[in-house]
Amino acid sequence: MQNNKVKNMEVEIIECTCDEHKGHHQCVPRKGELIVNGGFEDPITFFGWQIDPSNDGVDQAAPDEVHSGLKASRLGFSDLAGNLEGDGVLLQDVSGVCPGRHYELQFEMNGEVQKGNAPVDVRVIWLDEDKNVIGLGLLITVTANSLPDDNIGAWTTFQGITSESPNGVRFARVRFEIHAANPETQHVHLDDVSFA
Question: E strand or H helix at 159, and its extent?
């Protein structure tokens, strides 16, 4: 005889609230680390990340400009072809994000010269299943002239908790933006990005 009893089983199902799909699909949250290649260690350095083609001042940091491992990202210095470019936007659309949750963003950053960095705008943007913007989850501003010098090996850890994710959310866009007037001295190094 088969026993069909289920004891103490918890299942979290978050249903779509839109009229068109009401009750027909669900959001299944991913657990643990949600960022892909947050340390930029993949053989394809920016695997999982996107570089804005109109703000493409993003390249791989030099081996002595990393927080951990062998690779890091450099924002506001040059494009991937090596052309000097102070405007850079690096982003990742993180999947498995569901409504009613708070997420933690953490990353490491330093500058090229002591307290000489350009400001960096860091955002977590809530997106629906079609990747339309539906809200802002977190804003961190790395102020100008605030970061330690990479030559002394010092890094600043940034950490923030998002607002509660709204109804209809399916992705979180983690976005870093810099506009360095003097790319040679104002660029920054980014490593060990985590979103969980």
Answer: strand 156-161
Burial classification of residue 31, based on how many CB atoms lie within 10 Å of its CB (0-12 exposed, 13-18 middle, 19 or more buried):
exposed
Write down the pLDDT at residue 26: 86
Are 99 and 172 within 8 A, CB to CB?
no
Write out residues in the chain with pLDDT < 70, as ranges: 1-25
Q: What is the pLDDT of residue 181?
A: 97
pLDDT at res. 145: 96
Nearest CA to 60 out of 71, 47, 69 is that of: 71
What are the tokens at 89?
Answer: 């936007």
The continuous run of DSSP H or E covering 131 comes out as: none
Amino acid at 75: L
Tokens of 180: 């360095």
Q: What is the pLDDT of residue 152?
A: 83
pLDDT given at position 1: 40
The closest alpha carbon to 62, from 72, 51, 48, 52, belongs to 72
Q: 138 has which bridge partners?
A: 124
